[in-house]
Design goal:
six-stranded mixed β-sheet, 3 domains, 22 helices, Rossmann fold, alpha/beta, pyruvate-formate lyase- activating enzyme, 644 residues
Length: 644
C-alpha cells in the first residue's frame, strides 16, 4: 500500500514535468479536509474525466457538501489524470489518489463515480485500474472499497453492470447518506460482502446488478430480467427528493480555468415540456422550484465564499421557472454595482420574454442561446416542440434589437422520419435569423448553429426509434457544411462516430460490458474527446466479442419489445411513452403539462410531493384519485409493474 507521504514524495518529481500540475495538487479555497482517523467512513467522489471538466459538475459538489456535513464521514475528490499525468503516474508507481489528503483510492471505504454521460465508461475502468482495484465487481472482496455509481447515464446501468457494485438510480441527496448508513451497519456486523449488497438493495433507488440476471430471445433481444433473490426489488424505482435541499454555497475555487468558472445555483429541477427526444426532461420529473428568496440568499453566501462574479441560474429550462423575471430583477437589485454576469443557459423560445431580455441587459454577455431543435414546424411537432418559425424570428428580432450581436441556435439532425429537405431548412432558418439581426444592428449580427445528432435514449418516447446510420449522418452534415457558410455564420457539429458510440452505450444490454472492457484493454480512453476517441478500437472490440453494433442502433423496435432498462423505473409508465411515440408518428403534440396532465405516471407515483410542496403552481388530476404517500416507498417493499 502507498501512504500519502510516499505519494507526495513521488509527486514532487512528477508534477514539474506535466501540463497543468494544479489539476493534481488539491489545496484550493473551500476544500474540506478532515482528520482521516477521526471519522468512521471515508468516501471518494470520482469524476472520471479531467479536473477542468469535473470541477464544473454541480452533482458531485452537492454530494461533497452533504457528506462532509456529517461528523462521521469525510468526502474527498478524484478525477481522471490527463494522458501525460497518467503515463507519469504509472511509471512512478503512483496510484490514483484523492486531492484533499493524497490517500490512494484503495484506502477509501466507498468510491462514488459520477456518470452524467456514457462516454465516461472506459475512463471509469481506467480509474479503477489506476487505483489498483479489480475491474470486475465479482472479483472484489471485503478488503476492497464499495464501488457505486450515479448520474443520468445510470438509468440504463446494464452496460456497466459487471464493474459497479451498486447504482444509485435518480437523485442522490438522500440516498447516498442511506448507503453510508448501510455500509456502517454492515461493517460493524462483520458480515460478508454479499450481505452488504443485500442491505444496499433494500434502499429505495439502489440497484445491485449481482442480484439480477438477464435472459435473451433467439434474435438477441432481452426476454426478461429476473431477480436472483426474492428481497431484491423489481423494478427498481428511481429515488427522488420531495423538496430540493438548500443550495451549495461554499464552492471550491479552482487554481486554474475550468469549463464553467461560475457559481451554479439550481433554481428548478424537472421539466414539463415533454420533448420526446429529451432524456433529462423525462427522468427528472416532476418539477420542483426553489423560492426567489432562497436563491438570492444562497447566491449572496456563495459570492462571499468564492469571489466568483459569474452566476449560472440552472435548470433544464430556466425561462420556465415560474418567477424567472422576479428572480433576475431581485439578483440585479441585490447585487447592483457588482457587475455580475448572469447566465441562463437553458432558454425556451416560447417563454423567453422581452421583459426578461431587458432585465438581463446589464449582464456582461454578448448574446443568447436558443434551442429550436428542428428547423421546420412539421418536425417540431414530431419531437413535441411546437414552436412556430415566426415565433423564433420574433424572439431573434427582439434579442438583436436590444444590442446583442450573437445568437447561437441548437439543432438536432436524425429525428425520426426526417428528410434531407428538413435538414436543409436549418440553413434557411439560420439565414433568416441572421437577416433579422442585420436589420437591427447591421453586419455585426452573428449566428452559430450547433448541430448534434439524435440518439433514441432510454425512458423517452423515442426509445423505439432507430438511429441514423453513419452514411446518413455524414450526408446530412456534408449538406450543412456545404450550404451553411458565409460572413457571420458558423456551424458546429459532432463527429458521427461519437454519436454512434454514445448510442451503443446508452442502448446496450449486459453483453455490452464485454465490449467496454475489451475497448479499454485495446486502449480506449477519453471517448468524449475528439482528440482521443478511437472509433476503430470500438469496432474491433465489437468484432472480438461477437456482437453486432447495428443491433443496438439501426433497427426499429416493436412496441412490445423488452428493453434492457425496463427493470429500472423512472416513474413514467411505459404505456404513456408508447402512446406518445404513436402520437409523434401522427404529428400530434402535447401541451405543457403545467396546463394539462397527460397521466405520465410520475405524480401518482410520488403523490405526496404535493404535500411537501404546497406552493407548486400546477395540479395533476390523477393525484386526487391515486394517492401513494411518499412514506410508503421504502424500496424493496414497493412493486410497480413494468407495463408492456
Amino acid at each position: 500500500m502507498h501512504s500519502p507521504e510516499e505519494i507526495d514524495a513521488r509527486l514532487e518529481r512528477i508534477l514539474p514535468v506535466v501540463q497543468k500540475p494544479a489539476r493534481y495538487t488539491g489545496g484550493e479555497l473551500n476544500q474540506v479536509v478532515k482528520a482521516w482517523e477521526a471519522v468512521n467512513t471515508r468516501v471518494a467522489l470520482v469524476f472520471p474525466d479531467i479536473y477542468d471538466l469535473g470541477m464544473s459538475n454541480l452533482g458531485w459538489m452537492i454530494l461533497y457538501d452533504l457528506l462532509n456535513r456529517r461528523p462521521d464521514t469525510l468526502a474527498e475528490r478524484a478525477f481522471s489524470p490527463a494522458d501525460d499525468m497518467e503515463t507519469a503516474m504509472r511509471r512512478a508507481g503512483v496510484p490514483l489518489y484523492s486531492l484533499e489528503t493524497h490517500h490512494p483510492l484503495a484506502d477509501f471505504d466507498i468510491l462514488g463515480f459520477s456518470l452524467p454521460y456514457e462516454t465516461l465508461y472506459t475512463n471509469t475502468l481506467n480509474a479503477l485500474d489506476l487505483a489498483g482495484i479489480p475491474l470486475l465487481a465479482s472479483q472484489r472482496t471485503t478488503a476492497h472499497p464499495l464501488v457505486i455509481a450515479g448520474g443520468h447515464a445510470t438509468f440504463n446501468p446494464e452496460p456497466m453492470h459487471a464493474f459497479i457494485d451498486a447504482f444509485a438510480i435518480g437523485e442522490g441527496e438522500e440516498v447516498l447518506g442511506e448507503i453510508v448508513n448501510a455500509f456502517q451497519e454492515w461493517k460493524r456486523s462483520g458480515a460478508s460482502r454479499h450481505e452488504l449488497l443485500l442491505r444496499l438493495s433494500a434502499i429505495w433507488g439502489v440497484y445491485v446488478p449481482a442480484l439480477y440476471q438477464a435472459e435473451y430471445d433467439p434474435d438477441g433481444a432481452v426476454s426478461r430480467v429476473e431477480r436472483l433473490v426474492e428481497s431484491a426489488p423489481l423494478p427498481v424505482l428511481k429515488r427522488i427528493v420531495p423538496r430540493l435541499p438548500p443550495p451549495v454555497t461554499r464552492f471550491i475555487v479552482p487554481y486554474l480555468d475550468t469549463v464553467h468558472n461560475r457559481i451554479p445555483i439550481e433554481i428548478m429541477r424537472g421539466c414539463t415540456r415533454g420533448c420526446r427526444f429529451c432524456h433529462a426532461g423525462m427522468i427528472n420529473r416532476p418539477v420542483r422550484e426553489r423560492s426567489v428568496d432562497e436563491i438570492v440568499e444562497a447566491l449572496d453566501q456563495a459570492l462571499q465564499a468564492t469571489g466568483i462574479e459569474e452566476v449560472g441560474l440552472l435548470s433544464l429550462s430556466s425561462s420556465d421557472y415560474t418567477h424567472i423575471l422576479e428572480l433576475v430583477q431581485a439578483v440585479s437589485t441585490r447585487f447592483a454595482g457588482r457587475h455580475l454576469n448572469i447566465s441562463l443557459p437553458s432558454l425556451r423560445i416560447e417563454s423567453f420574454s422581452a421583459d426578461l431580455m431587458d432585465a438581463l441587459h446589464d449582464s456582461r454577455r454578448s448574446g443568447f442561446t436558443l434551442a429550436p431543435e428542428a428547423a421546420t414546424e412539421h418536425m417540431r411537432e414530431i419531437i413535441n416542440k411546437p414552436v412556430s418559425t415566426d415565433q423564433l424570428l420574433e424572439t431573434a428580432r427582439a434579442i438583436f434589437s436590444r444590442g446583442w450581436h450573437h445568437l447561437k441556435l441548437y439543432f438536432m439532425i436524425g429525428h425520426p422520419s426526417e428528410t434531407l429537405e428538413e435538414v436543409r431548412a436549418i440553413v434557411d432558418v439560420c439565414r433568416a435569423v441572421q437577416a433579422e439581426g442585420r436589420k437591427a444592428i447591421g453586419r455585426r449580427a452573428e449566428v452559430t448553429a450547433g448541430v448534434s445528432t439524435f440518439i433514441p435514449k432510454p425512458h423517452t418516447p423515442f426509445q423505439w426509434a432507430p438511429c441514423d446510420t453513419l452514411d446518413q449522418i455524414q450526408a446530412k452534415q456534408e449538406l450543412l457544411r456545404r450550404e451553411l457558410r458565409g460572413p457571420g455564420l458558423k456551424l458546429n457539429w459532432n463527429p458521427p462516430e461519437t454519436t454512434l458510440l454514445e448510442a451503443w452505450l446508452s442502448r446496450g444490454d449486459r453483453r455490452m460490458s464485454e465490449v467496454i472492457l475489451r475497448a479499454w484493454q485495446l486502449g480506449a480512453r477519453f471517448d468524449a474527446w475528439n482528440d482521443f476517441f478511437r472509433y476503430d478500437l470500438w469496432l474491433q472490440a465489437f468484432q472480438e466479442t461477437g456482437l453486432d453494433p447495428a443491433f443496438y442502433t439501426h433497427r426499429p423496435r416493436p412496441l412490445d419489445e423488452v428493453f434492457p432498462w425496463d427493470h429500472i423505473n423512472p416513474g413514467l409508465r411505459k404505456k404513456f411513452l408508447a402512446e406518445d411515440y404513436r402520437w409523434s408518428l401522427a404529428g400530434k403534440t402535447r401541451m405543457d403539462c403545467r396546463e394539462r396532465c397527460f397521466a405520465c405516471g410520475i405524480l401518482p407515483t410520488f403523490a405526496d410531493l404535493r404535500r411537501h410542496n404546497p406552493g407548486e403552481a400546477w395540479q395533476c388530476p390523477e393525484v386526487k384519485t391515486r394517492r401513494i404517500p411518499l412514506a410508503s416507498l421504502p424500496g424493496a417493499d414497493l412493486q410497480i409493474p413494468v407495463i408492456p
